[in-house]
User: Fold these one by one.
Assistant:
Number 1:
Amino acid sequence: MEYKGRRQSTNVDDARGRKMAGAAIPIGLLIRFVTRMFGAKGLLVLAAAGIIGWQMGLFDPAAMLGGGGQVTEVEYTPTAEEEQLREFVAVTLADTEDVWNREFQRMGRQYRPPQLVLYRQQYPTGCGVGDARMGPFYCPADQKVYIDLSFYDSLEQEFSAPGDFAQAYVIAHEIGHHVQNLLGISDQVAAMQGRPDYNEYSVRLELQADFLAGLWAHHNQRYLEHGDIEEAMRAANQIGDDAIQSRTQGRISPHAFTHGTSEQRMRWFERGLESGRIEDGDTFEMPYSSL
Ligand SMILES: [Zn+2]
């Protein structure tokens, strides 16, 4: 995808230099170490020192245990490669803003662009602590997309889906969840929680987000380069539930699907890419077996 020198979104919140305070001191390790070295007496001394320190306001135990969610500034200097990735993400986000501004206007609505938070390792979000191992995600509660850029290494290495357009697809999919949230679709699905067929609604929601990612690609075709669509399709193929399950458990159990099969994910992305019209992306009307 062409992105050099293009408009970058101002809605990127770069939190890579902010660390969760709770992660600063591994208190469990400290207790184990003191107990081994000094026995129970050492632990008593540690506890007493802890209480005195707390009383004197030297530290906040809640933050140390990771429950405080406070963040502290740390020294962080991104590499040139990471900076390029940040620029790429900011341009992709700007592209989604342009497309969805227009589409919402066409529907007589107003698009409110979400913030995209770049973080490293762990970060407090409106949906609990974000962890890099979870991959990029959208939090409906605070309407933000969270991503640790190291996921892009996994996409290339673990999931064998390299290429910048694979990376753009992942963002466009998360923005698709934001669109669903603004349109009230996410709430309707959330209300189904607890029902035995809830997984089916989750799959429908995910496939629609893939469709919306395809729709975004449709309206962005002038910036695409040779091989881009294949990169996105490969990512959709590699992160389907069946592909992930067979890699992690060596077998496939369809009732546990929450995102759809690889084939379904590619199909709905392609449908969005071909159509470019949100009306063609209703994944909730048709029978589940026809998705
Ligand atoms: Zn999703």
Note: The mean pLDDT is 86.
Number 2:
Amino acid sequence: MDLTPLKDTPHRRFNPLTGEWVIVSPHRTLRPWQGKVEKSATRDAPHYEPNCYLCPGNARADGAHNPPYSSTFVFDNDFAALLPNPADLSIAEAGLLVAETERGICRVGCFSPRHDLTIPRMCAADLRLVVDMWIDQSNELAGVPWARHVQVFENRGAMMGASNPHPHCQIWATAHLPNQAVREQASFEQYTRKNSSCLLCEYVRIERSLRERVICENDAFVVVVPFWAVWPYETLLLSKRHVGSLADLNTGERDLLADTLKMITTRYDNLFEISFPYSMGFHQRPLRDQAGGDWHLHAHYYPPLLRSATVQKFMVGYEMLASPQRDITPEAAAERLRQLPKVHFLDRS
Ligand SMILES: [Zn+2]
Ligand SMILES: [Zn+2]
Ligand SMILES: [Zn+2]
């Protein structure tokens, strides 16, 4: 297959996970990159912040105090978007005004007691504790009889709306499959019906043979800028083995997931030498689903930055009204991320 025309011809690319298209305009970025690099070193950031509601021992919004925790720490969000036992509600007016009750559990998980320690700067052993926290929470929430989906996600940086810089994630369980899961579930099933193989197993195989969009990998995981990426430095973290959930990972793979998190986020921070903002999250097999066997565990990273620490990509205009569009090709973005140093810029002397 000849993929050379993708380098300079405007085209659109298909996203097989969502069934949507993205417009790619490579002719607009043939000019050399001249973005300025702004450093904002955080080497001297405090380990503990008296006013942080996530730091050990501090008071939270509802008056409760955090325990003096020394590794990871999970609690129910004091301002939960969903509640486990809301009143029953069901509206279906002419098929146009449609609403139903949604039950949910919303938790917050702190990665460590350290207020300043982001994932790329954590050590392997501590990162493994974060992976274990995700697995423990996923298992526990899978035991809630009405739960059908567990979403683990991290919003990092004020640009992504993170309300607190203390490194943490959120874990939501819901009674319904959310939009993204519904779409991906249908795509996995459809692909397997047609091809008798797994969509993402096949995709991993193609990317690893082409190597054009691969950024980093170890024995259990590979990170690529997906062929259909919308955000400039969007990446997809894929398990090499066909597993449906974090809990399906064996001990070795859990260590290697910790390693992979560090590899990709270090490159992100090194890109503009800042603490790189993003939204990321894992897509796991829906709970209690007969057809869930087709599901392949993966994580999406969606960073908002375009050319520098301050130039952000906005989804406006044509993108809001019609279809997303990008200038820098996924191949060029992958090349840049791949070339970056493997050691975090703050950990270099
Ligand atoms: Zn804190
Ligand atoms: Zn698979
Ligand atoms: Zn996904």
Note: Residues 31-38 have pLDDT under 50 and may be disordered.
